[in-house]
Amino acid sequence: MFVATAYLWQQASARDKTRAQKYADDAASLLPYMTDLIKKRIVNHPTECFRLYQTPAGFRIIATHDVVSPSDNVVEDWFAYFHADTNYVRLCQVQQCFRARITAKPWRMSEVENKKLAKDIPAKDFWFGSENTDIDSSIEQRQDELKARKQWVADYDKYAKNYRACHYVESMVGKEVARESGSGAPSHIDEFIQWHDKACQVEKNLEMA
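RE: above sequence
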C-alpha cells in the first residue's frame, strides 16, 4: 500500500511539474502580446498607467494612476480587455479585493517534490472545530494539530525565501500622465508598489513559484 501511495504521489507531483512548466512556457510566449496589449490601451486611454509582471502561470497588472475597486466600471473593462481569468474575476468581485499572491505556492516549490514540505498545510479544517465528542481527547487532538500547523508554517516561511512570486517586466505610462507627473504613480500608490515588489522579491534572481 505504501509503495502504491508513493507511486501515485510521484505521478501527481510529475503532473504538477509538467503543468507548471507548460504555464511558464505559455506565459513566456504571450509576453510580447500582453506588452503590446497594454501599450495599445494607454494610447487609447492616455490617463492610465500600468506595471506588468510575469507570474509562474501568467501575468499580473497593477494600475498605478488611480485607486479603484473591483466593482468599478473601469475594472470590468480592464478584466475584459486584458482577458482576466474568469475565476479570478469572480473572486475579486465577491470578496471586493484584488487577489494576488505575494509568496510562493507550496506545490510549486521543489521542497514539496523533495518531501521536505507537505503540499498542503496540516489540519486544513482546524478552525471548524473537531467532531470528537471526548473533550479531553478533542483538546489534545487540536493541540497536536496546532503544533503541526505551526511547524508547517515555519518550514514554509524558511523555504519560501528562496522563491519570488513574480517578475517585473515593464511600466507603461499614458501620455497625459507622463506629461503631468512623469512617473504616473501618486505617492500612496508608489508606496504600495514598493511594498508589493519587496514582498514578492521581484528584483531578486530567484526561481518563480
